[in-house]
Structures are given as C-alpha cells and as structure tokens.
Design brief:
single chain, six-stranded mixed β-sheet, 3 helices, 6 strands, Double Stranded RNA Binding Domain, alpha/beta, 164 residues
Length: 164
Amino acid sequence: MTPPGARAALLLLLAAAPAACGYRLGPAPPLAGATTVRIPVFENRTWRRGVETDLARQVAAAVASRSRLRLVDAGGDLVVEGSITDIKETVLSEREGENIRESAVLVTAEVVVRDGRTGEPLVKLRKITERESFVPGIGETLRSARIEALKRLAADVADLLEAP
C-alpha cells in the first residue's frame, strides 16, 4: 500500500528530473527575445561550388525544426552571416594498392549573429568545423559526407540562436 501523497511526490520528482539533468521540453528561448531571423547565403571562400546554397538550406531547416524563430527573407530581429572558409578531404585508411578504404571531409565556417535592427554582433565571430567520415567501398561518397557535415554545422549555427 502506498502512503497518501507518495504517488503525487513521485510524479513531481519525475517531472522535475529532466530539468535537473539539463534537458528541456520544446525549443529553447531565442537569443535577445527575437521572433524572426534572416539567413542570407553564406559566402563561399572555397573552390567547391554550390556548397554555400547547401549550407543555407541546411541552416534554414535546422532553425525551422529546432527553434521558435520564424525565417524571413528581409529584415529580421537576428541576421546570421557567415563564410565557408575551408573544405578538406582526408584519407583515414587505405588498402594495398593505394585504394582508399575510409576518408573524411571537414567543413569549416566562420559565423556571426547580428542584431537585425542595429547591426551589432550578438554572437561574435565563431569558427565552427564539422567532420564526417565515409567509406567509398560501400557506396558512400564525398558529396553524401559533405551534406552530413553541413547538417551538423547547421545544427551548431542553430544553437547560436538560443538564449544562454
């Protein structure tokens, strides 16, 4: 037999446990109380064409799915500006005969978040690098790995838009 109130206390404890562990229900509040964000296409300082539009698409998708912010094409309480500065492919292991067994792609971007009204930086310039490995022997490609690295990079950018 359960003592009176024990069940209510247990439910209260279970409800509070996620907050105590750093978990939250729903998206975090946006930076500076913003409601809208504009994400222009990042500058591409690499020789790889089209990666800037891939990243813009991934950032927009990450913000739409992970935050309370509404994406806008003009204006915006927040403006995310950035440059893709480097994309490197590295060989992680190879077989005899110099056949690549596993490789990785590293994508680096510099990102700043500005107040859309004043232009002042709310998040100063950050250099973010994400890595994704791939195995050509099982059909994975540099392009598929680059898309996965861009998804991770986009999630990092979306995290910058959350209030501390």
